[in-house]
Design brief:
alpha/beta, Polyamine Oxidase, Chain A, domain 2, Guanine Nucleotide Dissociation Inhibitor, domain 1, 3 domains, about 30% helix
Length: about 475
């Protein structure tokens, strides 16, 4: 069975593959997308909780206001109204006291968050000032950033253990998905510059108000199908090879193949290396992708007998728990009186090393200290979901391995948050990679084609202070 030529086949229905499909469909290109699973969305997916009847996200995904291409993707596909913008971030110190991070009216970037940072009472005044000075120094660095970890650099700046644990880690762990001692200084700088210094709104967080499986597994595929794209689920591509005619043959197993002149492979790095192994002689870099390390992220799902807090989110500082989310699923009456919360732990190596009852007990204790007004909570049930390679590990020197979306083989492009986007493993990086993969193929017909939308504008004072 052979697919007629002319249609671009996209292998992988995660956010990167969906973004590539959206870009091509809007350019008038015929597209067919293959996804091995029964539902699209990749790691941004959900499961049906049999006790409550609710769709529960395996792990909460959020965007930031600085994620302009992810916002563009949501606008194109009609998802923008499904996200709530949080303009204030709620931090809870080890003592349980709450500190809100918000932009101060009238202050331009990069000074807009300075008053909030100076009020972080879980650091001494000396530690606060030292951290602020280090952030400014980091922003002014423009070379040598990928030669060391951010943890190494911070110790060279004489940041105290308390500052590392209570200031730098809460920001960078969730943004980079990796520990301070493993993450590249280059990407730490990007987080602070793009997320906190360049623009007043950049730090704000966009939280989905519907299950991820509904957004990326139902609404986006429906949008694509309405525009003529063919979306095939439960169909795995096992390998891709070049034919003598210069096209690509996709092996689907059991002797079934598809042929296409143009292919975008939008798979995680190890799976992409496996599928593209037949072309590795012509593209040796494929073999290097297996050397990329992954980092785990865990979602700890908790059901209590009473409300813990009415806050939509909280950042816990100096604890095993990192982010707490209160998804708006249903009313207590429709969920049997249970109250659901999710704790997200990035770079969850410590959690993996613990036995589950001990880990859950510690997390519940941390939540009770942060929210003592909740009283004597009773944990009804729980579930821990860990994705061991949820994101690629942004270690120093990784950029030499991250491939461009444009391959050296005509008609073949790749996508994935792990490809060369300049971003860590985020929703933004995934969308950027999909857009760039579509651009790599489209430029054959339109050399001036540009897919990426602009970043948020950089404030004039930030440009003057940091040379941005």
């Amino acid at each position: 069975m052979t697919e007629p030529r002319g249609r671009t086949i996209i292998v992988g229905g995660g956010l990167a593959g969906l973004a590539a499909a959206v870009a091509l469909v809007e350019a008038g290109e015929p597209v067919e997308l293959f996804e091995a699973r029964r539902r699209l969305g990749g790691r941004a997916s959900s499961w049906l909780d049999p006790s409550s009847g609710e769709m529960i996200d395996f792990c909460q995904h959020v965007g930031m206001a600085c994620c302009t291409n992810f916002a563009d993707f949501c606008r194109r596909t009609g998802l923008s109204g499904s996200f709530r913008r949080a303009s204030v971030l709620h931090f809870f110190g080890p003592d349980g006291r709450r500190y809100d991070l918000r932009a101060t009216p009238g202050l331009p970037a990069p000074l807009h968050l300075l008053p909030s940072l100076l009020r972080l009472g879980y650091l001494s005044l000396t530690e606060r000032l030292s951290a602020i000075v280090a952030v400014g120094k980091l922003a002014r660095m423009h070379s040598g950033l990928d030669a060391m970890s951010v943890g190494q650099w911070l110790r060279e700046q004489r940041q105290s253990p308390a500052a590392l644990e209570r200031f730098w880690a809460p920001v960078l762990l969730s943004a980079l998905g990796e520990t301070l001692d493993k993450a590249s200084l280059k990407y730490a700088r990007k987080v602070f510059v793009d997320g906190f210094l360049a623009n007043r709104e950049a730090f704000q967080v966009d939280v989905p108000q519907a299950p991820l499986s509904e957004l990326f597994g139902e609404l986006v595929p429906a949008w694509l199908r309405e525009r003529g794209a063919m979306v095939q689920t439960g169909l795995a591509v096992r390998s891709i090879r070049r034919t003598g005619a210069g096209s690509y043959e996709l092996n689907l197993g059991d002797g079934v193949t598809r042929e296409a002149e143009r292919v975008i492979v939008a798979l995680p790095w190890r799976k992409a290396a496996e599928v593209l192994a037949p072309v590795a002689d012509a593209w040796p870099a494929v073999r290097q992708w297996r050397t990329i390390d992954g980092s785990p992220i865990s979602g700890v799902h908790l059901w209590f007998d009473r409300p813990l807090t009415d806050l939509p989110h909280a950042v816990l500082v100096g604890t095993l728990a990192q982010w707490l989310f209160r998804p708006e699923l249903g009313t207590p009456q429709t969920t049997g009186g249970e109250h659901y919360y999710q704790v997200v732990i990035s770079a969850s190596y410590d959690l993996e090393a613990m036995d589950k009852p001990t880990a859950v007990a510690q997390i519940v204790g941390e939540l009770q200290r942060a929210f003592p007004q909740a009283g004597d909570l009773h944990l009804l049930r729980h579930r821990i979901v860990t994705e061991r390679e949820a994101v690629f590990s942004v270690r120093p020197g990784l950029d030499v391995v991250r491939p461009s979306q444009r391959s050296p083989l005509p008609g073949l492009a790749i996508a994935g948050d792990w490809t060369a986007t300049g971003w860590p493993g985020t929703l933004e990086s995934a969308v950027r990679s999909g857009y760039l993969a579509a651009q790599a193929l489209r430029r054959v017909e339109d050399p001036d084609m540009r897919q990426l939308v602009s970043d948020l504008p950089t404030a004039r004072l930030a440009r003057l202070l940091f040379g941005l």
